[in-house]
Each structure stands twice: as C-alpha cells, then as structure tokens.
Specification:
alpha+beta, four-stranded mixed sheet, 54% helix
Length: 293
C-alpha cells in the first residue's frame, strides 16, 4: 500500500520540481523521459508540471501537416471534442490526440451534441461519396472519346435488338419500332438511323405514360429532344393508374417512354436481324469457340 505521507513529501517542493521538468522539456525530452528522470509516477502531477510548455518537435507526428495541426489545436481550444475535430478536418483521432494532448479537455458533451456530430459526420461521408461517384463517371465518360461510324453501327444494332420490337413466328412484326424512357438511348437510336440513311420523314413518334403524370409536359420534353413538334406526334398512350401499386417513377423527372416507329421498314428490319446474327457469329469466333451444330 502506498505511503500517503511519503507521496505528499515527494512533491512538497512543487515549484522546484516544475522548474526541473520545464528545463528537461526544453532540452527536448519526452514526457516519459521526464517522468523517469524525476521519478514522477502520477500523470496528473506531470501534466501540472509541464502545463503550458509545448512538446518538442520530435515527439510530434513527423508527417503531419503544420496547417492541419494548427487547425486541430485551434478547434480544440474552442472546446471541440476529438469527434468534432475529426469531422471538421477529416484526419484520424490518433493524429488529433498527438497534436492536442497538452491542451485542456472540453466540457463533457450532451446526447444532443453527440447526435448532431454523428449526423454531420454522415452528411460529410455522403458528400464525399457523391464527389467520388461523379469523378468516376466523368473519368469513364472521357475514356470513350470519338466514335467511328462502324462503332456506332454495331452499337445501334445491339441497342435495337435489346430494346426494339422483334419478329416472332407466332406474331409477324417485320417493322422497326423502338421504345425507351432513357433520352440517351433515344438519341443514340436516332443517330444510328441517320447513319443508315433513314429519312426522318419516315419516323413517327408517340408517348406512352401513366395517366397520373404530367402528360403535356412529357410530350413537350420528348418533342424537343427529337427536334419535332407535339402536333406531329401520334396519340399518347395512357397507362391506367393503380393506386395499390407503389411506383417509383413519379415526380417531375418522370416523362414516360417515347416510341419511335419507322414507316415502310420491313426490309430494314430484316437487315437488322441479319446484322445481329452476324455480330453473334463474330463474337463467338473472337472467343475461340465454334457454334454448336
């Protein structure tokens, strides 16, 4: 058991002990070295002995940026906790601890403070993710660069076979018709038709959309996209609204789908089907395998 009287007598000359501690600190000794040199085994006493005396540079994190460390110390002096400083500066708690450990602790925060800090931290994380998401998408966009006519041709064939109407043995539909809600898909499809030399006079457009949506606004949007007028559009197909269905495609951005039909297109459809199977055969050969049968 510790002898309290000897403990008190050990630190009776506090000012003299403080002078020694400060002198050692200014010589560049660490807290542990000073503690061992002066036989101070009480951290609270050691804190009092070194109060106001900055730590030597070698004890600080070597790669820490001076401006970031200064900001962390300033925020700590304003009463911020490690959590709040981390949210503000985006650095680790271990770094913050090294930078501000000689400064006084802030008052204990309330549950409301903790909740607010957590919310701000989550909002900062979402913002960072959104920036990363946009940067990745933009970098991918830049990778495409210029497109050759052959590349557009092959893309258009694959696009049509994915989203266009197709002929079936039980339902003969040798005509070109394409429907989609993505304006980018519509633009690529129209560019592809232009590449094939399809006369725009042969194109017919109409909108298909839920009756609960802003039909007029949707018609104007699609007409502007294809460079036409709503008066030239066919009759809009209205889908019956089912109140029991929890639809996600609602709001101002919902514009339904645009249907693009090519008149007198039986021959074009047959060529598209042939082009598609040509792509299939070529891709199999590239893969090093032969078709079955």
């Amino acid at each position: 058991m510790t002898d309290i009287r000897s403990e008190n007598s050990k630190y009776s000359d506090f000012e003299g002990l403080r002078e020694q501690a400060i002198a050692l600190r200014r010589e560049g000794l660490s807290r542990r070295q000073i503690r061992d040199r002066l036989f101070v085994d009480n951290n609270d006493i050691l804190n009092r002995l070194l109060q106001g005396e900055p730590a030597p540079e070698w004890t600080k994190r070597p790669n820490a940026k001076d401006d970031l460390r200064a900001e962390a110390r300033e925020l700590r002096l304003q009463g911020m906790t490690y959590d709040r400083i981390q949210v503000e500066l985006g650095c680790s708690k271990s770094s913050i601890s090294l930078w501000v450990r000689d400064l006084p602790k802030p008052p204990r925060r309330t549950r409301e403070d903790a909740s607010a800090i957590a919310k701000r931290g989550w909002e900062a994380t979402l913002q960072r993710r959104e920036v990363e998401r946009r940067q990745t998408k933009q970098a991918a966009t830049d990778e495409i660069g210029a497109m050759s006519e052959r590349e557009l041709f092959i893309i258009g064939v694959a696009l049509y076979w994915s989203e266009g109407t197709k002929d079936k043995p039980h339902a003969r539909r040798e005509r070109v018709a394409f429907i989609n809600s993505d304006p980018g898909m519509i633009q690529v499809f129209l560019a592809w038709l232009d590449l094939l030399g399809v006369d725009r006079e042969l194109l017919r457009f109409h909108v298909t959309i839920h009756e609960s949506a802003d039909v007029l606004a949707a018609e104007k949007y699609w007409a502007a996209l294809v460079g036409s007028d709503t008066s030239s559009f066919g009759k809009t197909t209205l889908k019956k609204h089912n109140v029991k269905t929890l639809r996600k495609n609602i709001g101002a951005d919902y514009r339904g789908c645009l249907v693009v039909q090519v008149q007198k297109s039986a021959d074009l459809y047959r060529r598209i089907e042939g082009w598609w199977y040509g792509i299939v055969d070529a891709s199999v050969l590239v893969g090093g395998r032969s078709l079955p049968g």
